Structures are given as C-alpha cells and as structure tokens.
Amino acid sequence: MNDASTDTAAPIPPFDILLVDDSSVDAQIFETALKESSSRVRVYWVASGEEAMDFLFQRRRFEKIGSIKLVVLDIHLPGQDGFEILRQIKSDPNLNRTPVAMLTSVGSQDEIDLAYSLGVNAYFRKPATFQSYAELLRVMAQHWLDHVELPRPQSRRSLLSREQRMERELEPES
Question: Rounded CA gap, 47 and 49, in Å?
Fold first, then answer.
C-alpha cells in the first residue's frame, strides 16, 4: 500500500495567462481575482497590441518567457486592436492552437460575430460592478483550469519536423 505522504507526484505546472488590456486598473483586478481562484495562475500583462505580439513571439524584452496557456484580449487597444491580434495569433502555426478569450467592456453583436469568425474561443463582457467582474473572472479561471483540456504548446521544431516528414512522404520514390 502506498503512503500518501511519500507520494512523489510531479508538481502541477503554472497556468500562464497573457492579459492584453490598456487599463491598469482592470489588469490589477484581473490578476487579483485569478490568483485568489488558483495559486497555479501566473498573469502577464501588456497594454498594447504591439507588446502582445512581442510577448507571443518572444521578441525584445520578452525573449525568456515560456508558453502561454490562454490569451485574454480587450478589443479596444492603442495601435493594433484585439481583432488584429486575434487574426495574427490564429494565422501563425506556432500560436494558432493557443486559446483566446475576448474580455471587453463594450461589444456589439457584429463584434461578437467577427471575433468568433476569426477563431476566438470565448467572448465575455466585463460587468459594470466590481463584485460581478470578480465573480466572472473566478468562473473563467475555474473553466480554463479545471474543465478544459488544452493541447500541448506547439514548438517551431515540431512544426518543422512535421513539415519535413510531409515533404518526404510527397516526394516521388526514385
């Protein structure tokens, strides 16, 4: 019989979330609510589309950041808006399996339709009250952490090797 106190199960890795939102107040609420929901959550925050793309492509000051499990995007950002960031994520073979949720304070049905047509995985409206916003974030964290099975992060090396295998299979035999 195994003693539970001597169990050497592997530690559960952190759940890294990239929040792209130009409001530092909303970012603070987001981080606080999610960390209260789970100690596994690590929130990285950037305030613009350009910073988001630098982060996701590990450029400039973000070179040493690992894989993100979830991207949470505001729509209305300085520079590139959330739709453009979503477009870039879903069109890149290294990022396209990364789940993306839109979290915005305003949004028309046309914006919701556009987000889903571009491949968003979930669309949330920020509630007007702090309590409701915090509750939404707790539910959101529980959903992504406890109920969703995510794919492994895609590496450039695995993509390249898969493409090479496919090319070899297509080559005519000599």
Answer: 7
- Gyration radius of the chain over CA positions: 19
pLDDT classification of 56: cutoffs 50, 70, 90: confident
DSSP letter (8 states) at residue 122 = E
Q: Is the pTM of this model over 0.90?
A: no
Q: Identify the bridge partners of residue 125 per DSSP, sorted by sequence position.
A: 104
The pair of three-digit structure tokens given for residue 134, joined into one six-digit string: 């915090």
C-alpha pair distances (Å), 29 with each of 53, 93, 107: 23, 32, 20
Residue spans of the domains in the chain: they are 12-170
Instruction: Return the structure tokens found at 138.
Output: 């707790």
- Both structure tokens of 168: 């070899």
The pLDDT tens digits for 95-148 are 899 999 999 888 789 999 999 999 999 999 989 888 898 889 888 888 887 888
Please name which of 54, 32, 31, 53 lies closest in space to residue 44, comparing C-alpha atoms. 31
User: How far apart are the C-alpha atoms of 19 and 73, rounded to whole Å?
Assistant: 6
Place of tokens 């952490």: 145
CATH superfamily, with its number, for domain 12-170: Response regulator (3.40.50.2300)
